[in-house]
Amino acid sequence: MPKTLNIAVIGAGTMAQAVHLPVLRRRWDRFTVTALVEHSPRRRREASEVWGVAEESRYESVADLITAVRGKKVAVDAALLSTDGLHVSDLMQLMRRGIPVLVEPPLGFSAEEIAEVVDFERMTGRHLVMMAHPQQYDDSVIALSEKIAAKDVRMIDHEVLMPASQPLFGWAHVTTSAYDLPTEVRSQRRKSLQAAVEAGAGGGATQRDRDLYVKGLLTGVAHQVAVIERAYGPVTRLVAVRHWPKGVIPGSIEILGELENGAPVRLVWHYLPFAPEYSERIEVLSARKRVDVELPAPSLGDRRSRISLREKSAGAVVTTASTATAGAAEAMWEAFHAFVGRGTRPIMGAEEARAQLLLMREVLAAIVEADGRSLEPEPEPEPEAAAEPEPEAVPEAKSASPRVDGIESEVEVQPASEPGATADPGEGDEPQHAAVGAPDGDAHAPSAPESAPPQDTDDEPAVEPAPVTEPVPITEPVPVVEQSPSPASEQIAEPAPIADPAPVGEPEPVTEPVPVLEAAAEEPGADRPSAQEPSAGGARRSLPTDEVDVWNLDHGHSHPDDDGR
């Protein structure tokens, strides 16, 4: 790797022109700008003229740059990604080419977006991303842990006062914003950015929540978290979060958290648009010492940070102060040179950026929940289902049969569902549905319907049986003396209706059925006429009323011994 790195600057926005390009020009012995990528024609032309980029080295998109690199029209050893929109798409094109990239935060707006970069680095086994947090490389920040060790920290207080852009970048003479893009291109870029922010903030976030997420957390508080992480490690636990004034975005944000060792951290970030200057101060306390750090704005490259230590020595308070030897941005680019040339692991790469984004998302959720809302989208109300018509009642009950020797039996009536279906009268099987007809004492039992002549068609539903006064359910058929029940293989699909006994008197063939209720209401032991039962061929013949075969009633065919008794 050559001593001087060929750098492609992607995005000629405010941070590139106010922070990075001045350092690259100052450190001409270490870096050379060989290409500039900017989608705005006017900004691309003006920035190239200011920073001395040849016309043949100006590109509209990263895809055009990659094409030129493949054709060996331009030499690129590393790149600065400082665009004003989405980073991951352009970043992946550079990483697939094996180009290390210094990325201006935020890397992405959702954990899923950054995970694509993390997975690619794991697959290649090479770190290609370094996050551009200049204060992480400041000499005063690095010296914090040397003055007070992490195990001795009693409290860390980090406060930032952020003014509007004029006090920060007014001196830099940044070129015109990218307003010369075609309307459809600007609209598409805006929609893509909005979709990425919505995915990161959550479906239940409002526009104010999304603005706070981007302008206050990802580009404000995230910088403070990065500085504390450099000195003492990451913030691992949130204790409390506060945002004020209510309704002002981004306003002021206060975070109380803890380090891995339990040391408390307080971060305060104020956006004060009319403040005269930028201010950043860190205070670290231990049982015996106090350290104060003053950090200048990264855009003020000629100013240096200052650190002071106050402690007791021989009964007197002693103050020791020192000033950094280089600006934070310049120190960061020196670290990036080592990252590209020697493969030195960066302080914050893609994996650390993803963990930081998850913490910022947790802070946003706490602020929203304090307002009585949630970042999760509200579930859509389920459409009211149309009222379904009540299905026709299928008779799955037991009908009362005539008494046999003082015992009243029940016969389970099978539903007429499919022609050709057979019943399975297994012994000891309990019925799965309650029988139609209420037992004694049930005031809600349905009244018995009037009996109708039996129908020959299979489409007509079975007639509901009459209620029984005192039913005695049995679990198996009651055998009749000197009768053998028909085998189960002779079952038929439809049980035939039971004919009621004719009036007392001379037994005669009954042509019209009599309601079952009359037979069920007779006293035990009374003389009963013979019952009519249809035979297999449709003709009716008499059965002795004092010997009724319950099995035959269930299956609707005669017993072979009826005529020979």
TrEMBL record:
Residues 5-129 form the Gfo/Idh/MocA-like oxidoreductase N-terminal domain. Gene3D superfamilies: Dihydrodipicolinate Reductase, domain 2, NAD(P)-binding Rossmann-like Domain. SUPFAM superfamilies: NAD(P)-binding Rossmann-fold domains (SSF51735). Coiled coil: none annotated. It comes from the Bacteria. InterPro entries: Gfo/Idh/MocA-like_OxRdtase_N, Gfo/Idh/MocA_Oxidoreductases, NAD(P)-bd_dom_sf. It comes from Brachybacterium epidermidis. Residues 444-454, 477-497, 513-523 have a biased composition (Low complexity). This is Gfo/Idh/MocA family oxidoreductase. It holds the Pfam family GFO_IDH_MocA. Residues 373-565 are annotated as: Disordered.
